Amino acid sequence: MTERRPLSVDLVLAPVDTSDESDDAVAHAVAIAAKYDATVHVVHVLGEDVVRAIEDGVVDDAQVAADGEAITETAARIAAEHDVPLSTSVAYGFSTKMKLRHPGSVVLDTADEVDADFLVVPREPISGDPGEVLAKAAEYVLLYASQPVLSV
Description:
The chain has 152 residues and is an alpha/beta fold. It has helices at residues 20-36, 48-56, 61-81, 103-114, 137-144, and strands at 11-16, 39-46, 86-92, 118-121, 149-151. It has a five-stranded parallel sheet with strand order 3-2-1-4-5, sandwiched between helices. Helix 1 packs parallel to helix 3 (61-81) and helix 4 (103-114) packs across helix 5 (137-144). 35% of the residues are buried.
């Protein structure tokens, strides 16, 4: 009989966008981190519309900043409620120059960069809202992640 090794988690990654499902993912990530005495890293994945606007120099800076601040404030509040350390970053979810850059690959690349041990990915309905970047990423992450993944 094979002996089971306990799961060791030091860092939980939660990729987010502007959807309500992202808040649920952060809450789950924080709960897992609290159980394992780990930290949470939240990465705000920017959508195609925002990335194109940035590259074309027509981005609404105020709106992008407001979205980022709202995401950071919500994540910080959830983490503070459970006394879990939190770090954040922002990543382009698309590229007009790199064909293989999409939200799923960005999540996996970020997981490698921050040395995440566990991923919590929002599984979202596809509503067509441009702020909902991660709608299709969950399946990709579930298929290709080398870390354990919770899709919520």
